[in-house]
Amino acid sequence: MAAYPDEVRVILTQRTAALRVHSGQIAFPGGKIDAHDKNAAAAALREAHEEIGLDPRHVEPLGYLDPLRLEPAFALSLWWPNHRASRLKINPGEVDEAFEVPFAFLMDSANHALHHKEVDGKLRHFHAMPYGARNIWGVTRAFAHLYERLYC
């Protein structure tokens, strides 16, 4: 993990197992778009503040990922927070922990793996990226889409 010490880093969360939707997954801070949210960016900022205490004043949007087919609708945006995961305030009702991953690691195709698993009689495909003791998977398949957009 020390291969990228001074690189841009992405904050991810380990969602608590007690959640009804996407429990236990590694995910972006952010979440469900509520009716009162102005747009997906506002929803992502609100949810990131609720989940990990990320102050919207310290966030600069770098861009937006293509919408993923998720139920319910979730806001997924790529942000560059101006502070480290160690300074965050974790909401234990939603998140077990927040951690940082170097953006270069996420964009290295050698770290992308496509897995297959049968669930309820259907073959499911999912992206995973082993990172230290963690296996990044779930809605973070957006990294594979972003890699394809930037480098293919």
Number of domains: 1
Percent of sequence in beta strands: 25-35%
Q: How many DSSP H or I helices?
A: 3
Distance between the termini: 25 Å
Name the average pLDDT: 76
Q: What's the helix-strand series?
A: EEHEEEHEEEH
CATH superfamily (homologous) name: Nucleoside Triphosphate Pyrophosphohydrolase
Kindly report the CATH topology.
Nucleoside Triphosphate Pyrophosphohydrolase
Name given to the CATH architecture:
Alpha-Beta Complex
- Classified by CATH, the class is Alpha Beta
Given as residue ranges, the uncertain stretches (5+ residues, pLDDT < 50) are: 70-78
Task: Detail the topology: elements first, then pairings.
Layout: E1 9-15, E2 26-27, H1 40-52, E3 59-64, E4 77-81, E5 95-102, H2 103-106, E6 113-119, E7 122-131, E8 134-137, H3 142-151
Fold and architecture overview:
A hairpin with a 2-residue loop joins strand 6 and strand 7. The chain has a 3-stranded antiparallel beta sheet. It has a 3-stranded antiparallel beta sheet with strand order 6-7-8, with no helix packed on it. The protein has a two-stranded antiparallel ribbon with strand order 3-4. With 152 residues, it is an alpha+beta fold. The longest helix has 13 residues, at 40-52. The chain has helices spanning 40-52, 103-106, 142-151, and strands at 9-15, 26-27, 59-64, 77-81, 95-102, 113-119, 122-131, 134-137. The protein contains 3 helices and 8 strands; from the N terminus they run ββαβββαβββα. Helix content is 18%, strand content 32%.
